[in-house]
Design brief:
By secondary structure, the protein is of the alpha/beta class. It is about 40% helix and about 10% strand. A four-stranded parallel sheet has the order 1-2-3-4, sandwiched between helices.
Length: about 190
């Protein structure tokens, strides 16, 4: 949660008057403490942990009336999308934002992680690098996704939204663009409620 990318993106969002809560999955905290990387658990195994964090956040919001969007980067965004339908149906969240959604595992484009996105009711925004190896623009164009899911493509961006130097674009520019789009999405969702 304190990776420089996450800190920078949080800064971009806060500059646009959005409140951001970051947290770290238990397996990531264990990696940090032990200094040893292990494969991430399947997203479905993290639903309870993510849901508990959202429940705590909603409890702290204490009915302030502000719309709550949930989301995350990569695996965090995927897990957010897995819990979003139920939370949205109950009127607990206004929508979901995913940054660098992992549409499939690395080098396994045949193993899609999109079944729940075929009929997806909550307002959703995915900000994706156009050349993301976990779901490029060309790949995603062929997926059966709910048409209510908005995808913001960042030119030449990878999974971390970073473009190649030769593109003339910058990661900082892409992060600012992502934050602008997320801010507009949040305003739109707030206007619906």
């Amino acid at each position: 949660m304190d990776h420089p990318w996450m800190v920078a993106m949080t800064g971009e969002l806060v500059q646009r008057r959005l409140s951001v809560v970051r947290f770290e999955f238990g397996f990531m905290a264990a990696q940090r403490a032990g200094g040893r990387r292990r494969p991430a658990p399947r997203g479905e195994r993290l639903i309870g942990e993510y849901g508990a964090v959202v429940e705590k956040l909603l409890g702290e919001a204490n009915g302030d009336g502000l719309p709550v969007l949930i989301g995350g980067k990569s695996l965090g965004g995927r897990v957010a999308s897995l819990v979003a339908q139920e939370l949205h149906a109950a009127g607990r969240i206004a929508g979901v934002v995913c940054l660098g959604y992992p549409f499939h595992p690395a080098k396994k484009p045949e193993r899609l992680r999109t079944a729940h996105l075929k009929t997806f009711a909550p307002p959703a925004l995915i900000v994706q690098g156009a050349r993301d190896p976990l779901g490029s623009r060309e790949e995603v164009a062929g997926y059966a996704l709910d048409p209510r899911i908005a995808i913001e493509w960042l030119a030449d961006g990878d999974h971390d939204l970073k473009p190649r130097k030769r593109s003339g674009l910058t990661l900082e520019g892409h992060m600012a663009s992502a934050a602008i789009r997320i801010s507009a999405f949040a305003a739109d969702v707030a206007g619906r409620g």
